[in-house]
Design a protein that fits this description.
Layout (H helix, E strand, L loop, with lengths): L2 H12 L4 E3 L2 E5 L6 E4 L4 E5 L1 H10 L1 H11 L5 H10 L7 H10 L1 E5 L2 E7 L5 E7 L9 E3 L4 H7 L19 E6 L1 H11 L3 H9 L8 H6 L13 H11 L8 E2 L19 E2 L4 H13 L13 H15 L17 H11 L19
Parallel strand pairs: 8-9, 10-11
Antiparallel strand pairs: 1-2, 2-3, 3-4, 5-6, 6-7, 7-9
Length: 362
């Protein structure tokens, strides 16, 4: 604990109302000029100024905790989030400080955030991918700006158009960040998630449902309000579940028409259909304009099942995980190539059946 912290505490105790924070209460009697210090464990007073200093130092955890949380320039949402990181609402100061000595870890999407504490009560934050929590050979970063590049590509070097997709690359860590720096880093990886999380906790999240979002689109996207409610459910099933996005969907078809699709278990909410969903909706709107046709194919039962396996594998993004020697899986590459050699004609048409011309509007 520093002298500055104690002096600041004494000055704050002299203000109207004194100090009252996380179990620490310090007041000054204007008539006698003495102080009273109360913690959950004991009450001390009346105290002269030098005695106040001694009692403050013997209760350093309470004083440094008060100083850290009251002498910062954090906004309300930032303050609430950093408190959430160290489970301030769940543990008293003594228990929290003991836990902080070993590090308190919380997950935010695919980010693991560990909070520790210095001798003066300053919090220090470390970040890595949740998958790297047990790893030590990681590329170390200290500049929050580096998170922009980390968030841009996945482990295979593919661009990530959706920052909250569960594809955050591994192999990195940020260490010894301040509260402001950890917030900046998280915002580069998952933009605006802290702010929306806080608004939801305050019951102030401004939700824009599908219909109102679709109806305000212009230009090439002004057609998406043609999607019927069932198609909107298919859209949410395709794009807005945990396997595709870490946000927890809070929007529905409309305020009075909830979608029958799981909302997800993410820590942070999704307040409106995102730009990726809007772009996908445009394509599906055009495809839904087509009339169905009747086609006849001759397939064995196993070939029909294999086509279903292929669609499942692509939809779940697991084609890269299928071993070349795993011939039981219908999406195995060699089985797919065999099916193509057997059932596709020279024009790439299944069983030689011609595909009807698509609707010119699609």
């Amino acid at each position: 604990m520093t002298n500055t912290q104690v002096v600041t505490l004494r000055e704050a105790a002299s203000d109207e109302g004194g100090v009252s924070f996380d179990g620490l209460v310090v007041t000054r009697d204007d008539n006698s000029g003495t102080y009273t210090v109360t913690t959950p464990e004991a009450s001390h007073g009346p105290l002269e100024t030098d005695e106040l200093m001694a009692v403050a130092k013997s209760n350093a955890a309470y004083v440094t905790n008060w100083y850290y949380w009251t002498q910062s320039d954090l906004t309300e949402d930032e303050w609430a989030f950093l408190r959430w990181l160290e489970r301030a609402a769940e543990n008293d100061v003594r228990d929290r400080y003991e836990a902080l000595d070993n590090g308190i870890e919380r997950a935010w999407g695919e980010i693991s955030v560990t909070t520790t504490i210095s001798e003066t009560g300053q919090r220090q934050y470390s970040l890595c991918n949740v998958a790297d929590r047990e790893h030590t050979a990681l590329n170390e970063h200290t500049d929050p700006l580096d998170a922009r590049q980390i968030a841009k590509y996945d482990d295979d070097g593919h661009y990530r158009p959706l920052k909250t997709a569960p594809t955050l690359q591994t192999g990195w860590q940020f260490t010894d960040l301040t509260g402001t720096e950890v917030l900046q880093t998280i915002d580069f990886i998952y933009p605006a998630t802290v702010q929306n999380w806080y608004l939801e906790r305050q019951d102030e999240l401004d939700i824009s449902h599908w219909r109102e979002t679709a109806e305000r689109q212009t230009g090439i996207y002004d057609i998406i309000d043609e999607l019927d409610p069932e198609a909107v459910e298919w859209l949410a099933t395709a794009c807005c579940v945990d396997s595709q996005c870490l946000k927890r969907r809070q929007w529905d078809e409309s305020e009075d028409s909830p979608l029958d699709v799981p909302r997800g278990d993410g820590a942070f909410p999704c307040r409106e259909p995102c730009s990726l969903v809007i772009a996908a909706a445009r394509k599906w709107t055009r495809l839904e304009r087509e009339e169905t046709r009747e086609y006849t194919f001759e397939l064995t039962p196993s070939e029909k099942a294999q086509i279903e396996d292929l669609i499942d594998a692509v939809s779940d993004g697991r084609t890269d995980d299928i071993r070349e020697a795993d011939m039981k899986d219908g999406a195995n590459r060699y089985r797919a190539r065999y099916l193509r050699a057997k059932r596709f004609d020279e024009n790439g048409q299944l069983c030689g059946v011609t595909t009807d011309a698509t609707d010119p509007d699609s």
